[in-house]
Each structure stands twice: as C-alpha cells, then as structure tokens.
Design a protein that fits this description.
about 20% strand, binds fe (ii) ion, binds 2-oxoglutaric acid, single chain, Jelly Rolls
C-alpha cells in the first residue's frame, strides 16, 4: 500500500553551503531522494522542453524508429524495449524514450547523438542541447555540495578525474496511459535503482513515481512521490552508493501504469568514463571494509546499460 511521503527540499541558491551540505547528507542517508529548488532553470523552459518531447513522441512510429538506439545508447527506445528491473521475468516497461548525451563522448563505434530532421521538428535539437548544458551546470553545483556533504573538498570529484567530461544522459520519457492495451500487468518503469552518481528528474505532474525506502522489507512498502511544482526530484545512484560504501542510498523506485499519458525527463549524471569508482577513505574502516571492488565507471555502466535492453542491445 502506498503511504504519504514527505521528502526534504534542498535550495540550490542557499549561500550557506555548509547548511545545504548538511541537509543533503541527511536526505541521502534517510531517503536517497530529495527535491531540488531554486536551481535556476525557468519554468517556461521546462514547459518548452516537455512540449518538444511530446512533439517527438507524437511522430509516426516509422519516423521514430529511424532513430532507434544503437550500441552507444543514444536515440529512440520504442515501447517495451527496455526493462529497468533486469531480474524481472515480466519483460518490457510500458514507456518509450529517447537518450541524448554529450557530443564529445565516444562510447562505442558510434559517437554521435541522433536527431529528428530539423524540418520535421524545428528547434528540437537546440532545445535538447540547451537542456543538456543547463542541467550539466546544475549538476556541477550539486556534485560539489555532495562532496561537501561527505566531508570532502568541494572540488573532490573534479580532482579525482570524475568530472572533466562526465557521461550524462538526458532521457525523455513518455508513458502512454490507458490507451495502450499491451500492458498485461507490466509497469510504466519496473523497480530499479539508477546506475550513476545521481539523477535529476523533471515530471509533468502526472502521478506514478513511487519509492521503496527499504528494499529488504517484506512485503515491500511503496510510497508515492508527490509532485512539487518547479522542483527537480534528485536521487542517489548506484555509483555514489559504491563510492560511499552504502552510506548514501540508491533507493529503489518505479513508475506505476498511469491512467493518463505521462511525460518526464531524467538527467542521469555519471562520472568520466575512465574514472575509478572506489570506496572513499572516510566511508570504510577495519570494522566496515569496502563492500564493492573498485571499478572503472565505463565498465560498470556498460554492464548495467546492456542488461536493461529487453531483447539484448542492438
Ligand atoms: O519517469 C519517472 O518518473 C522515473 C523514470 C526513472 O526512474 C528512470 O528513467 O530511471
Ligand atoms: Fe530511475
């Protein structure tokens, strides 16, 4: 049964950075989720982004399929093509999506984003590129507060080489609502934790997102995440959980099938591909040894990304 959930609100513009860092630490210990406000992105820009996203998903399927993702995970994923809970026997999440990342990053033999033709969707690419840049700037501020919240230098992630050319993704998402008849007990997004450092999520206000704060509890308790107008929902990812030896929690979440159509945009922040993710000194001791071996960011992400492709990654 879903209960009422009150998540902390972090003000990114607060000049008292130590106080923000303290609040972030508490939020990451208690929930692994919080709202980010005063992040500097205008509401009108969010509306423009959601409008452009809707325009893309309204294109005929054959047009969208021309941009289907390849090995590098950029472009279009049709309905049911990904299953975020890779251990689930029920395959296929009821959403379609579109991934965009930095043009500078070469992840496989393909190193270019895919774009719908300008004559079909004027300004689409420019809107997405602008969102990517704005979110990268917000993430940079957030990452430095997260470093402070762990008692580290605020430039810690830059200094260890995790934030020079970080792999980040914009993921546009469309949940079709009850008009889609092939759901058969599937979820909008099956239960998962995100892979990277953190995720910053924008939704259109249609409910559906739930979190499970204690994944080991049986039966699991799923709680609705209320919409807060203008706020981004931030959650800790598995790479940060590894860095912090499970001090910061990458909380399980999912999206229920929705009656109405629903649009959301996730911004996934990961580190630089070649950075090593290994337990922070301050997060381990003799009594609490590292729970995960060190791993290169790219190896971890490749493995996790390929596991969510329902029929294998093309
Ligand atoms: O659409 C949402 O609200 C959540 C999406 C999500 O959890 C994801 O893409 O990782
Ligand atoms: Fe997620």
């Amino acid at each position: 049964m879903a209960g009422d959930l009150v998540l902390p609100l972090i003000d990114l513009s607060n000049p008292d950075r130590d106080s923000s860092a303290k609040s972030i630490r508490k939020a990451c210990l208690d929930h692994g989720f919080f709202y980010l406000v005063n992040h500097g992105i205008e509401e009108s820009f969010f509306q423009q982004l959601l409008k452009q996203s809707k325009k893309f998903f309204s294109l005929p399927l054959d047009e969208k399929m021309k941009l289907q993702t390849r090995k590098d995970n950029r472009g279009y994923n049709p309905l049911l093509s990904l299953t975020l809970d890779s251990s689930s026997e029920v395959k296929g999440d009821v959403n379609e999506g579109f991934f965009i990342t930095s043009a500078k990053i070469s992840y496989s033999q393909f190193n270019a984003n895919q774009w719908p033709p300008e004559e079909l969707l004027p300004c689409w690419r420019a809107t997405m590129e602008s969102y990517y840049e704005k979110m990268l700037a917000v993430s940079k501020k957030l990452i430095s507060l997260m470093a402070l919240s762990l008692g580290l230098d605020d430039l810690f992630f830059e200094k260890i080489g995790a934030w020079h050319e970080p792999l980040a993704y914009v993921r546009l998402l469309h949940y079709p609502g009850k008009t889609f008849e092939g759901s058969c007990g599937r979820l909008g997004a099956s239960a998962h934790s995100d892979f990277g450092i953190a995720t910053l999520l924008l939704t259109d206000g249609v409910p559906g997102l739930q979190i499970c704060r204690d994944k080991d509890r049986h039966p699991q308790l799923w709680e609705d995440v209320p919409h807060v107008h203008g706020a981004l929902i931030v959650n800790v990812g598995d790479l940060l959980e590894r860095w912090t030896n499970c001090l910061f929690r990458s909380t399980l979440h999912r999206v229920l099938p929705t009656e109405q159509e629903r649009y959301s945009v996730a911004f996934f922040i990961n580190g630089d591909l070649d950075c090593m993710v290994e337990c922070l000194e301050s997060c381990c001791s003799k009594e609490n040894p590292p729970r995960f071996p060190a791993i290169q960011c790219v190896d971890y992400l490749r493995h996790r990304i390929s596991a969510i492709y329902t029929g294998g990654q093309k």
